[in-house]
Amino acid sequence: MLDPTQPILTAQGISKSFPGVKALDGVGLELRPGEVHALIGENGAGKSTLISILSGAMKPDGGRLLLGNQEVELESPAAARNRGIATIFQELSIEPWLSVTANVVLGNEPVRGPGNQLLSPRRADEVARAALARVGADNIPLKALAGQLSTGQKQLVEIARALALNPSVIIMDEPTSSLPARDAVRLLEIIRQLRDEGTAILFVSHRLDEIRAVADCVTVLREGEKVVTEPIENLNSNRMIELMTGRSIGSLFPPRNDQLGEVVLRVDGLTREGAFEDVSFEVRAGEILGFAGLIGAGRSEVMRAIYGADPLDEGTIEIDGKPVSVKSPRDALSAGIAYLPEDRKEQGLVLNLPVRDNMVLSTLARFTRRGVVNRQKIRSVTSQMATTLKLRGRPEMAVANLSGGNQQKVIIAKALISEARVLIFDEPTRGVDVGAKFEVYTLMQELAAKGAAIILVSSELPEVMNVAHRTIVMSAGRIRGRYDWPQYDEKQILSDAFAAFAS
Question: Residue 203 is part of a domain; what is its CATH number?
Answer without folding.
Answer: 3.40.50.300
